[in-house]
Design goal:
268 residues; alpha+beta; M1 Pyruvate Kinase, Domain 3; 8-stranded mixed β-sheet; 3-stranded antiparallel β-sheet; 4 helices; 14% helix
Length: 268
């Protein structure tokens, strides 16, 4: 069996809930609608899980094709619906009340709101990798693990951490195709203080990072390039999607094929 897409998730508002898709269109250096919106604080910083655990308590349900979102507090209380464009001021008022500080919604369709804009706007992980890591955290659900790492594309039909075959040593990458879409895997994704937080409450687990590294040490494939990156506190891979791929589609079931190794100078 060849590797294939088993799950696609986009995050229309950065740091909030995902939308699961069967088919997704490629936008500019990213999947369409993914992280198209973000919440900014008064000092121009992202309101995200690094800044406040309150982010995890905000529930968002989308009809993204119609640019609507329903916000509610996971701890209880009424829900409220907004059009992300036409009701921007009302949505900002709701968010400002929720976070107890001024919040501003911004929009960008060019992938500029990603953690690593342009050169790494799509992240990939295998379901087997999530399952392997889950063994270290049996008190959590697999969905909990999935929500902590927020990958865009999940793949099936492979062994744990097979996705690291899609990157090379530092400075090198791997060109591959998913269906009709061409990508370049460029590096593993270093993790921050977000995965240790409960994805629904924001409560941190001070043992999470250490236990994740322990899990990775005990399941590292023999040919993994990960040690060359200086730490095992990595999960998912960063990929580059060229502007030439815009408008193409990928979907659940699409197969993944490795094309060739490349250097990072090939990113254009």
């Amino acid at each position: 069996m060849k590797p294939f897409i088993s799950r696609i998730r986009i995050y229309p508002i950065k740091s909030l809930d995902p939308v699961e898709l069967q088919v997704s269109e490629v936008g500019l250096h990213s999947l369409r609608y993914d992280r198209e919106f973000a919440m900014l604080t008064q000092d121009g910083e992202f309101m995200n899980g690094k800044k406040s655990g309150r982010v995890n308590e905000l529930k968002a349900v989308y009809d993204i094709a119609n640019y609507t979102v329903i916000f509610s507090d996971r701890l209880g209380g009424p829900s409220q619906s907004f059009h992300l464009l036409n009701d921007k001021l009302e949505a900002e008022k709701y968010l400002s009340n929720f976070f107890k500080e001024p919040i501003f919604l911004v929009q960008n369709k060019e992938g500029k709101l990603m953690d690593i804009p342009t050169v790494s706007s799509v992240t990939i992980v295998s379901e087997a990798s999530l399952q392997s890591l889950h063994k270290e955290f049996p008190h959590l659900t697999l969905e909990d693990i999935r929500l902590r790492f927020r990958a865009t594309i999940e793949i099936g039909g492979v062994e744990p951490y097979w996705e690291e075959n899609l990157i090379g040593l530092p400075g090198n990458g791997v060109k591959f195709t998913i269906g009709e879409v061409e990508m370049i895997g460029i590096s593993p994704r270093a993790r921050c203080n977000v995965p240790p937080r409960d994805p629904l409450s924001g409560i941190p687990d001070k043992t999470f990072a250490k236990r994740m590294i322990f899990s990775r040490e005990n399941s590292l494939p023999a040919n993994s390039p990960l040690p060359a990156y200086g730490s095992l506190y990595h999960l998912t891979i960063n990929t580059y999607v060229a502007e030439s791929q815009r408008g193409k589609t990928l979907g659940v079931g699409d197969e993944i094929s490795i094309v060739e190794s490349v250097t990072h100078e090939c990113l254009q």
